[in-house]
Design goal:
The chain is of the alpha+beta class and 322 residues long. It folds into two domains: 148 residues, Gcn5-related N-acetyltransferase (GNAT) (Aminopeptidase); 147 residues, Aminopeptidase. It is globular, with a radius of gyration of 20 Å.
Length: 322
Protein backbone atom coordinates (compact mmCIF):
# COMPACT_ATOMS: atom_id res chain seq x y z
CA UNK A 1 0.00 0.00 0.00
CA UNK A 2 1.58 3.27 -1.11
CA UNK A 3 1.53 6.43 0.95
CA UNK A 4 -0.65 8.03 -1.73
CA UNK A 5 -3.20 5.24 -1.33
CA UNK A 6 -3.15 5.75 2.44
CA UNK A 7 -4.02 9.42 1.85
CA UNK A 8 -6.85 8.46 -0.50
CA UNK A 9 -8.21 6.11 2.14
CA UNK A 10 -8.53 8.85 4.76
CA UNK A 11 -12.11 9.57 3.81
CA UNK A 12 -13.19 8.54 7.30
CA UNK A 13 -11.49 9.82 10.45
CA UNK A 14 -10.35 6.69 12.28
CA UNK A 15 -7.76 4.24 10.99
CA UNK A 16 -9.08 0.81 11.95
CA UNK A 17 -5.59 -0.43 12.76
CA UNK A 18 -5.55 1.98 15.72
CA UNK A 19 -8.84 0.71 17.23
CA UNK A 20 -7.26 -1.59 19.78
CA UNK A 21 -8.54 -0.30 23.11
CA UNK A 22 -11.30 -2.07 24.99
CA UNK A 23 -13.32 1.14 24.86
CA UNK A 24 -13.10 1.24 21.05
CA UNK A 25 -14.04 -2.43 20.80
CA UNK A 26 -17.03 -2.07 23.11
CA UNK A 27 -18.32 1.00 21.26
CA UNK A 28 -17.98 -0.52 17.82
CA UNK A 29 -19.46 -3.84 18.93
CA UNK A 30 -22.66 -2.01 19.84
CA UNK A 31 -23.05 -1.36 16.11
CA UNK A 32 -21.74 -4.69 14.85
CA UNK A 33 -24.20 -6.42 17.18
CA UNK A 34 -27.01 -3.94 16.67
CA UNK A 35 -28.53 -6.07 13.93
CA UNK A 36 -28.10 -9.48 12.30
CA UNK A 37 -26.35 -8.36 9.10
CA UNK A 38 -26.18 -11.95 7.79
CA UNK A 39 -22.60 -11.47 6.70
CA UNK A 40 -19.30 -12.95 7.87
CA UNK A 41 -17.55 -9.61 7.43
CA UNK A 42 -19.93 -7.72 9.71
CA UNK A 43 -18.15 -8.39 13.00
CA UNK A 44 -15.52 -6.38 14.82
CA UNK A 45 -13.13 -9.31 14.73
CA UNK A 46 -13.46 -9.83 10.96
CA UNK A 47 -12.83 -6.15 10.30
CA UNK A 48 -9.88 -6.14 12.65
CA UNK A 49 -8.35 -9.28 11.14
CA UNK A 50 -8.42 -7.89 7.61
CA UNK A 51 -7.79 -4.24 8.43
CA UNK A 52 -4.28 -4.15 6.94
CA UNK A 53 -5.28 -5.86 3.70
CA UNK A 54 -7.92 -3.20 3.05
CA UNK A 55 -6.37 -0.26 4.92
CA UNK A 56 -9.72 0.09 6.63
CA UNK A 57 -11.00 3.33 8.13
CA UNK A 58 -14.07 4.00 10.26
CA UNK A 59 -16.20 6.83 11.60
CA UNK A 60 -19.51 7.14 13.41
CA UNK A 61 -21.52 9.59 11.33
CA UNK A 62 -24.90 10.50 12.72
CA UNK A 63 -26.64 7.31 13.79
CA UNK A 64 -24.40 4.84 11.94
CA UNK A 65 -20.96 3.25 12.00
CA UNK A 66 -19.31 3.59 8.60
CA UNK A 67 -16.38 1.53 7.28
CA UNK A 68 -14.51 2.61 4.16
CA UNK A 69 -11.47 1.81 2.08
CA UNK A 70 -9.96 2.47 -1.33
CA UNK A 71 -9.06 -0.39 -3.65
CA UNK A 72 -8.23 -1.08 -7.26
CA UNK A 73 -10.84 -2.70 -9.52
CA UNK A 74 -10.65 -3.16 -13.29
CA UNK A 75 -7.55 -1.00 -13.43
CA UNK A 76 -8.94 2.02 -11.60
CA UNK A 77 -9.11 3.37 -8.08
CA UNK A 78 -12.52 2.89 -6.44
CA UNK A 79 -13.75 4.05 -3.05
CA UNK A 80 -15.92 1.65 -1.10
CA UNK A 81 -17.98 1.55 2.04
CA UNK A 82 -19.77 -1.33 3.74
CA UNK A 83 -23.42 -1.18 4.67
CA UNK A 84 -23.58 1.45 7.45
CA UNK A 85 -24.27 -0.30 10.75
CA UNK A 86 -26.98 0.61 13.23
CA UNK A 87 -26.76 0.51 17.01
CA UNK A 88 -30.54 0.45 17.51
CA UNK A 89 -31.44 -2.39 15.14
CA UNK A 90 -33.42 -0.04 12.89
CA UNK A 91 -32.74 2.33 10.00
CA UNK A 92 -34.26 5.74 9.35
CA UNK A 93 -34.36 6.25 5.56
CA UNK A 94 -33.71 9.98 5.71
CA UNK A 95 -30.77 9.63 8.13
CA UNK A 96 -29.29 6.70 6.18
CA UNK A 97 -29.51 8.74 2.99
CA UNK A 98 -27.77 11.68 4.63
CA UNK A 99 -24.94 9.52 5.98
CA UNK A 100 -24.31 7.65 2.71
CA UNK A 101 -24.35 10.88 0.69
CA UNK A 102 -21.92 12.48 3.15
CA UNK A 103 -19.42 9.66 2.61
CA UNK A 104 -19.98 9.85 -1.15
CA UNK A 105 -19.35 13.60 -1.06
CA UNK A 106 -15.92 13.01 0.48
CA UNK A 107 -14.99 10.55 -2.27
CA UNK A 108 -16.39 12.92 -4.93
CA UNK A 109 -14.14 15.70 -3.65
CA UNK A 110 -11.14 13.50 -4.53
CA UNK A 111 -12.65 12.35 -7.84
CA UNK A 112 -12.75 8.74 -6.62
CA UNK A 113 -15.65 6.59 -7.91
CA UNK A 114 -17.78 5.32 -5.04
CA UNK A 115 -19.74 2.11 -4.39
CA UNK A 116 -21.41 0.44 -1.42
CA UNK A 117 -19.99 -3.09 -1.22
CA UNK A 118 -21.32 -6.36 0.18
CA UNK A 119 -24.80 -5.19 1.11
CA UNK A 120 -26.64 -8.14 2.69
CA UNK A 121 -29.65 -9.13 0.61
CA UNK A 122 -32.18 -8.31 3.34
CA UNK A 123 -30.83 -4.76 3.57
CA UNK A 124 -31.00 -3.98 -0.16
CA UNK A 125 -34.60 -2.70 0.22
CA UNK A 126 -33.44 -0.49 3.10
CA UNK A 127 -30.79 1.18 0.93
CA UNK A 128 -33.22 1.39 -1.99
CA UNK A 129 -35.77 3.18 0.18
CA UNK A 130 -33.14 5.63 1.40
CA UNK A 131 -31.64 6.47 -2.01
CA UNK A 132 -34.48 5.82 -4.43
CA UNK A 133 -33.60 5.97 -8.11
CA UNK A 134 -30.11 7.29 -7.33
CA UNK A 135 -28.85 3.74 -6.70
CA UNK A 136 -28.83 0.45 -8.60
CA UNK A 137 -27.74 -2.95 -7.32
CA UNK A 138 -25.66 -5.80 -8.69
CA UNK A 139 -25.54 -9.30 -7.23
CA UNK A 140 -21.96 -10.58 -6.60
CA UNK A 141 -22.07 -14.39 -6.70
CA UNK A 142 -18.39 -14.62 -5.68
CA UNK A 143 -19.23 -12.83 -2.41
CA UNK A 144 -22.24 -14.99 -1.47
CA UNK A 145 -21.65 -16.93 1.74
CA UNK A 146 -22.47 -20.59 2.34
CA UNK A 147 -24.64 -21.32 5.39
CA UNK A 148 -25.06 -24.91 6.63
CA UNK A 149 -27.07 -26.69 9.29
CA UNK A 150 -24.77 -27.46 12.21
CA UNK A 151 -26.21 -30.91 12.84
CA UNK A 152 -25.69 -32.00 9.25
CA UNK A 153 -22.04 -30.95 9.38
CA UNK A 154 -21.61 -33.00 12.55
CA UNK A 155 -23.12 -36.20 11.18
CA UNK A 156 -22.88 -35.77 7.38
CA UNK A 157 -26.11 -37.74 7.24
CA UNK A 158 -28.18 -38.14 4.10
CA UNK A 159 -27.62 -39.46 0.62
CA UNK A 160 -26.33 -36.15 -0.74
CA UNK A 161 -23.43 -36.21 1.72
CA UNK A 162 -22.66 -39.92 1.39
CA UNK A 163 -19.20 -39.40 -0.16
CA UNK A 164 -18.23 -36.94 2.56
CA UNK A 165 -19.44 -39.37 5.23
CA UNK A 166 -17.27 -42.11 3.70
CA UNK A 167 -14.20 -39.88 4.04
CA UNK A 168 -15.02 -39.17 7.69
CA UNK A 169 -15.64 -42.86 8.42
CA UNK A 170 -12.28 -43.78 6.87
CA UNK A 171 -10.54 -41.27 9.16
CA UNK A 172 -12.39 -42.47 12.27
CA UNK A 173 -11.57 -46.09 11.50
CA UNK A 174 -7.87 -45.58 10.73
CA UNK A 175 -6.61 -42.77 12.96
CA UNK A 176 -6.67 -41.97 16.65
CA UNK A 177 -6.96 -38.26 17.32
CA UNK A 178 -7.61 -35.73 20.04
CA UNK A 179 -9.81 -32.66 19.61
CA UNK A 180 -9.05 -29.75 21.90
CA UNK A 181 -9.55 -25.96 22.02
CA UNK A 182 -6.89 -23.78 20.41
CA UNK A 183 -4.64 -21.92 22.87
CA UNK A 184 -2.23 -19.03 22.40
CA UNK A 185 0.69 -21.42 22.90
CA UNK A 186 -0.32 -23.25 19.71
CA UNK A 187 0.43 -20.27 17.43
CA UNK A 188 3.74 -21.64 16.06
CA UNK A 189 2.00 -24.92 15.25
CA UNK A 190 -0.90 -23.12 13.55
CA UNK A 191 1.47 -21.12 11.36
CA UNK A 192 3.57 -24.19 10.54
CA UNK A 193 0.49 -26.14 9.46
CA UNK A 194 -0.75 -23.19 7.41
CA UNK A 195 2.60 -23.12 5.60
CA UNK A 196 2.40 -26.86 4.94
CA UNK A 197 -1.07 -26.45 3.45
CA UNK A 198 0.18 -23.59 1.28
CA UNK A 199 3.04 -25.68 -0.10
CA UNK A 200 0.95 -28.80 -0.66
CA UNK A 201 -0.02 -27.99 -4.27
CA UNK A 202 0.46 -25.42 -7.01
CA UNK A 203 -1.70 -22.36 -6.50
CA UNK A 204 -2.55 -19.21 -8.42
CA UNK A 205 -1.03 -15.89 -7.37
CA UNK A 206 -4.44 -14.81 -6.10
CA UNK A 207 -4.75 -17.94 -3.96
CA UNK A 208 -1.23 -17.42 -2.58
CA UNK A 209 -2.05 -13.82 -1.64
CA UNK A 210 -5.19 -15.04 0.09
CA UNK A 211 -3.19 -17.60 2.09
CA UNK A 212 -0.65 -14.94 3.08
CA UNK A 213 -3.49 -12.75 4.33
CA UNK A 214 -4.91 -15.68 6.27
CA UNK A 215 -1.58 -16.29 7.97
CA UNK A 216 -1.46 -12.66 9.10
CA UNK A 217 -5.05 -12.87 10.33
CA UNK A 218 -4.35 -16.05 12.31
CA UNK A 219 -1.56 -14.20 14.10
CA UNK A 220 -4.18 -11.65 15.12
CA UNK A 221 -7.07 -13.90 16.14
CA UNK A 222 -4.84 -15.59 18.73
CA UNK A 223 -5.08 -12.42 20.84
CA UNK A 224 -8.87 -12.82 21.12
CA UNK A 225 -9.12 -16.46 22.18
CA UNK A 226 -10.29 -15.51 25.67
CA UNK A 227 -13.37 -13.73 24.30
CA UNK A 228 -16.52 -15.82 24.95
CA UNK A 229 -17.75 -15.43 21.37
CA UNK A 230 -14.64 -17.07 19.85
CA UNK A 231 -14.91 -20.77 18.92
CA UNK A 232 -11.93 -23.01 18.13
CA UNK A 233 -10.97 -26.64 17.54
CA UNK A 234 -7.57 -28.28 17.05
CA UNK A 235 -7.03 -31.85 15.88
CA UNK A 236 -3.91 -33.67 17.13
CA UNK A 237 -2.65 -36.99 15.79
CA UNK A 238 0.28 -38.63 17.57
CA UNK A 239 0.87 -35.40 19.47
CA UNK A 240 1.12 -33.22 16.35
CA UNK A 241 -1.31 -30.54 15.17
CA UNK A 242 -2.83 -31.73 11.88
CA UNK A 243 -5.96 -29.58 11.55
CA UNK A 244 -7.66 -26.56 13.10
CA UNK A 245 -10.78 -24.43 12.79
CA UNK A 246 -11.30 -20.89 14.12
CA UNK A 247 -14.53 -18.91 14.21
CA UNK A 248 -16.88 -16.73 16.21
CA UNK A 249 -20.53 -16.07 16.97
CA UNK A 250 -22.26 -14.21 14.15
CA UNK A 251 -25.82 -13.95 15.48
CA UNK A 252 -28.07 -15.54 18.08
CA UNK A 253 -28.28 -18.81 16.12
CA UNK A 254 -25.32 -18.68 13.70
CA UNK A 255 -21.55 -19.00 13.99
CA UNK A 256 -19.01 -18.19 11.30
CA UNK A 257 -15.96 -20.32 10.62
CA UNK A 258 -13.24 -17.92 9.50
CA UNK A 259 -10.40 -20.44 9.08
CA UNK A 260 -10.14 -24.17 8.52
CA UNK A 261 -6.90 -25.95 7.64
CA UNK A 262 -5.90 -29.60 7.61
CA UNK A 263 -3.17 -31.96 6.50
CA UNK A 264 -4.70 -33.80 3.53
CA UNK A 265 -2.30 -36.70 3.97
CA UNK A 266 -5.00 -37.87 6.37
CA UNK A 267 -8.05 -38.77 4.31
CA UNK A 268 -11.18 -37.33 5.90
CA UNK A 269 -9.44 -34.83 8.14
CA UNK A 270 -11.42 -31.84 6.84
CA UNK A 271 -14.70 -33.61 7.50
CA UNK A 272 -13.56 -34.47 11.02
CA UNK A 273 -12.25 -31.02 11.99
CA UNK A 274 -15.47 -29.44 10.70
CA UNK A 275 -17.56 -31.94 12.65
CA UNK A 276 -15.57 -31.41 15.86
CA UNK A 277 -15.75 -27.62 15.47
CA UNK A 278 -19.53 -27.86 15.18
CA UNK A 279 -19.73 -30.18 18.21
CA UNK A 280 -17.90 -27.58 20.29
CA UNK A 281 -20.48 -24.86 19.62
CA UNK A 282 -23.21 -23.85 22.10
CA UNK A 283 -26.60 -25.54 21.73
CA UNK A 284 -28.25 -22.33 20.55
CA UNK A 285 -26.01 -22.20 17.47
CA UNK A 286 -27.95 -23.96 14.69
CA UNK A 287 -26.17 -22.74 11.55
CA UNK A 288 -22.59 -22.32 10.36
CA UNK A 289 -21.56 -19.62 7.90
CA UNK A 290 -18.49 -20.92 6.05
CA UNK A 291 -17.95 -17.68 4.11
CA UNK A 292 -17.66 -17.10 0.36
CA UNK A 293 -15.70 -18.94 -2.32
CA UNK A 294 -14.18 -15.75 -3.82
CA UNK A 295 -14.74 -17.20 -7.28
CA UNK A 296 -12.08 -19.92 -6.85
CA UNK A 297 -13.46 -22.94 -8.81
CA UNK A 298 -12.06 -25.62 -6.48
CA UNK A 299 -13.31 -23.83 -3.39
CA UNK A 300 -16.76 -23.34 -4.94
CA UNK A 301 -16.97 -27.02 -5.82
CA UNK A 302 -16.00 -28.03 -2.26
CA UNK A 303 -18.50 -25.68 -0.62
CA UNK A 304 -21.33 -26.64 -2.95
CA UNK A 305 -20.62 -30.34 -2.33
CA UNK A 306 -21.47 -29.86 1.36
CA UNK A 307 -25.01 -28.83 0.34
CA UNK A 308 -25.62 -25.48 2.07
CA UNK A 309 -28.93 -24.82 3.77
CA UNK A 310 -28.98 -21.41 2.06
CA UNK A 311 -26.74 -18.71 0.61
CA UNK A 312 -26.26 -15.34 2.31
CA UNK A 313 -26.33 -13.20 -0.82
CA UNK A 314 -24.35 -9.99 -1.21
CA UNK A 315 -24.97 -7.00 -3.47
CA UNK A 316 -23.02 -3.91 -4.52
CA UNK A 317 -24.75 -0.54 -4.83
CA UNK A 318 -23.74 1.79 -7.67
CA UNK A 319 -24.89 5.35 -8.14
CA UNK A 320 -26.75 5.71 -11.42
CA UNK A 321 -24.75 7.33 -14.19
CA UNK A 322 -21.38 6.95 -12.49
Amino acid sequence: MTEETHKENRILKGKFEDCLTREDMDLMNEYYRGLDYDGAGYTFLASHLWRQDYDLYWEIIGDYLCLGFVGFYDGRTVGSMAMPMTRTGTYDPAELRRVILEVKRRYDERNIPFIIRNIPAHLVPVVAEALGDMIEFEHDRDADEYVYEKQKLITLSGRALHKKKNHMNFFLKNYKYEARPVTKEMLPELIALTERVRAHKDRSEEELRSLDSEKNAINEIIHYLDEPYIYTTAIYIDGKLEAYALGEQLSSDTAVEHFEKGNTEYRGIYQVVCSEFCKSLPDEILYINREEDMGFPNLRHAKEALKPHHMAEKYHGYFVGE
